[in-house]
């Protein structure tokens, strides 16, 4: 079990929810609605790498306080899809997106939205744990916060400790905060990356095969953690592991060749899918 923060919440903001950082806007207007995570909605979303189309007309919703799994064979567009959800896709030269991604009802591709702020609000954890290897455990946890500047050493330490608690890593590293992040085990490094993502207090967390380089015990630990944090975040996870999708996800989307074959409650996708291709995939007949 993860150790909970002192406030009793795995995501101890230490602040009134209404004080959460709003989405950026040139006009400075945001409706200020705050809740446990925000809804992400892709509508007619297509994406390209140069002339190559990687996603075609994706329509889906990732609900707050729920886990949505993205499954499908290698190359079907899973990573591209989640990278479109926090505007990372456009960082690739020649990459392009059309359609909409709404975050709590607001188009994240609108001209007045700052992609850097979107990436803070919608955090990402990658397939391979990627802590800064020579940076200390604590400094890794607050690496994203440091970029923003403006926090004192003691504030940074407090936010770092909170993030490590939220990521279920505190007990294992509380006596090793000054050691290099690269000295932790693979599973611990991945939880350190989750801590780093949580430290900037996002509203949603995107995870791209976060367990694929981990052993079963570390995988189990991350799955437990996902279960714990989902009450406070909108979680979207890409996985190749059907058991993992079945265990952690409330909703599952099956992608094939850049298109949604089926999207629905996980138990339906696994037990009684509408499409034969979904059944073939989840039962391991291809992919
Ligand atoms: N930087 C890139 N430039 C050009 N094409 C790319 C690039 N990245 C991915 N693609 C292509 O876009 C398609 C979707 O790739 P993507 O990485 O989203 O698949 P994936 O479902 O995440 O696969 P995997 O399960 O192997 O991670 C593939 O055909 C891939 O070759
Ligand atoms: Mg991928």
Structural description of this entry:
This protein is an alpha/beta fold and about 290 residues long. The chain has a domain at about 35-130 and about 205-280: P-loop containing nucleotide triphosphate hydrolases (Rossmann fold, 3-Layer(aba) Sandwich). The chain is built from 11 helices and 10 strands. It has helices at about 80-85, 115-120, 135-140, 145-150, 155-165, 170-175, 185-200, 215-230, 240-250, 265-270, 275-280; strands at about 40-50, 50-60, 65-70, 95-105, 105, 120-125, 205-210, 235-240, 250-255, 260-265. The strands form 2 sheets. A 6-stranded mixed sheet has the order 6-7-8-3-9-10, with helices on both faces. It has a 4-stranded antiparallel sheet with strand order 2-1-4-5, with helices on one face. Strand 7 (about 205-210), helix 8 and strand 8 form a beta-alpha-beta unit. The longest helix has 14 residues, at about 155-165. The chain is globular, with a radius of gyration of 19 Å. Magnesium ion (MG) binds near residues 79 and 208.
Decide which structural class fits the backbone: alpha/beta
**Small molecules bound:** adenosine-5'-triphosphate, magnesium ion
**Total strand count, please?**
10
Name of the top-level CATH class of the domain at 37-130 and 203-282: Alpha Beta
Question: The CATH topology of the domain at 37-130 and 203-282 is what?
Answer: Rossmann fold
Q: Which percent range describes the beta-strand content?
A: 15-25%
CATH architecture of the domain at 37-130 and 203-282: 3-Layer(aba) Sandwich
Rg measurement, Å = 19 Å
Strand order of the largest sheet: 6-7-8-3-9-10
Estimated helix fraction: 25-40%
Largest sheet: 6 strands, mixed
